[in-house]
């Protein structure tokens, strides 16, 4: 019921803006940097350039990154002092990508890991 009410309320607003000659546009993503990940944490971001939803934790054991991040990671930051291994499957299975301390990547496509991470933990 709530979803239907929200949709109905949005349609007149959009039509009013269009009739008034205005244009609707999505706001650009806020810029971010690897330094936005707090010290001593591993952070994974949904989008490139450290934007979108993210997970950051000091305990670098994550057997499942959760429904909203599973197979949706596009940026990584390792601000720990340990090598972190990122895995394609939950429970540390499948292909693995090792990430050294203090390393970050605004786009993990080059490493073949874009939208493929499901778990991570220290490598050793």
From TrEMBL:
- Could you say which residues form the signal peptide? 1-25
Q: Which UniProt keywords apply?
A: Signal
Q: What is this protein called?
A: Peptidase inhibitor
């Amino acid at each position: 019921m709530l979803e239907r009410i929200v949709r109905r309320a949005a349609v007149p607003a959009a039509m009013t803006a269009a009739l008034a000659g205005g244009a609707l546009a999505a706001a650009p993503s806020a810029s971010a940097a690897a330094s936005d990940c707090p010290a001593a944490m591993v952070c994974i971001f949904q989008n490139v350039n450290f934007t979108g939803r993210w997970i950051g934790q000091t305990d670098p054991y994550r057997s499942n990154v959760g429904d909203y991040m599973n197979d949706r990671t596009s940026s990584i930051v390792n601000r720990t002092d340990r090598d972190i291994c990122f895995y394609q499957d939950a429970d540390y299975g499948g292909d693995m990508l090792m990430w050294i301390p203090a390393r970050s990547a605004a786009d993990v496509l080059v490493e073949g890991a874009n939208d493929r991470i499901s778990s991570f933990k220290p490598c050793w």
